[in-house]
Prior knowledge:
Layout: E1 2-7, H1 15-23, E2 28-31, E3 40-44, E4 47-51, E5 64-67, E6 72-73, H2 75-87, E7 94-98, E8 102-103, H3 106-119, H4 131-139, H5 152-172, H6 181-195, E9 199-200, H7 202-211, E10 216-223, H8 244-250, E11 257-265, E12 268-270, E13 279-280, H9 282-291, E14 307-309, E15 311-312, H10 313-323, E16 327-331, E17 341-350, E18 353-355, H11 361-364, E19 368-375, H12 392-405, E20 409-413, E21 421-423
Helix pairs in contact: 3-4, 5-6
Amino acid sequence: MVRAIVGANWGDEGKGKLTDMMAQESDIVIRFQGGANAGHTIHNHYGRFALHTLPSGIFYDHTTNIIGNGVAFDIPKFFKELNEVTSQGVPMPKLLISDRVQMIMPYHIDFDKFEEERLGKASFGSTKSGIAPFYSDKYAKIGFQVQELFDEEALKEKIHRVLEQKNILLKYMYNKPAIDENELFNTLMEYKKMVEPYVCDVSAYLWNAIKEGKNILLEGQLGSLKDPDHGIYPMVTSSSTLAAYGAIGAGIPPYEIKKIVTVCKAYSSAVGAGAFVSEIFGDEAEELRKRGGDKGEYGATTGRPRRMGWFDCVASKYGCRIQGTTDVAFTVVDALGYLDKIPVCVGYEIDGKVTTDFPTTGKLEKAKPVLEVLDGWKSDIGGIRKYEDLPENCRKYIEFVEEQIGFPITMVSNGPKREDIIMRESKLSK
């Protein structure tokens, strides 16, 4: 069976622990989109890890871990991360890399930095990982697939052709030095040595795995609201963050995806610019930031303090719908145990009218939150393993959110470790 795990909101929902838990039950784990610009934080018996490109199944010797064709593949970062993980006692994982995956080139990272500098105050809050320039080149048909590393003459010709364009931009738009063709070719030959043992026809491998009845997990990055089509455009990422893209980014039939676990955090957080209706500020935000996440709400990749807000039912309902959610995993509920009262955003007021439907970006930027305040439970819920053992007000909070978003909450996370999860029967489950 093929399952997908994805985010409902801006990313940072706490997918790391859930992917680690679901990877334990999987034969194959696939990263199907995005690059090293975001990360999953995982706690297990090996220690604490912030994974950026490695699939979350690397901690299990029975799991094959795949970089799908939809990934923005930064080869040096990938192998640096692999070396860091194995140096901490994790056995060398089983790895496969799609022959069709495209590479982040060294100049993609440079162009990302140069463009953010050029935009100044109008910048997109990029992580400067080369993601937008990479996907721009991919769809302009001047990207480089891994398979191209194995035909050196054709590769040299393409480097020459592509650098003619890139060097004009560097000279006249950014006033930067030109890229040397030979130097770039030699760098790509180093990349070839790194990836050669792992490259294969991933789509064919997965087709056979599905026929054999293997359990396959599609691992997504970021969340619904960062999707370039359905998110808060233009403050989005450059690859689709939706479970539906898992079929494309891994190379499998879409009808094989049977279960879509969408992760919602029990409050809201976001890194980067863009509309964020339920956002809070000042001491109130800092207190939640300090108590939330894993050792506080800071980006796993960037270390940037996350923007904080109350749970947004409007955004989460939309985010779950657009993912095709079958199950909701509700995370970091334990972080709210300090509050006497817990506000929840249940609607948006736009031009004097209240809506519960998530609007397009222009309207979103005018929206004001409509809040409903629930009673807190004022206790530590860490260590609880049964839903009925949670404080009554905690259960009321979970059930209120479930009713508002209209999707079944079947998992409740109450701590950073793999075992800190409560399985729950939902009345909304089919």
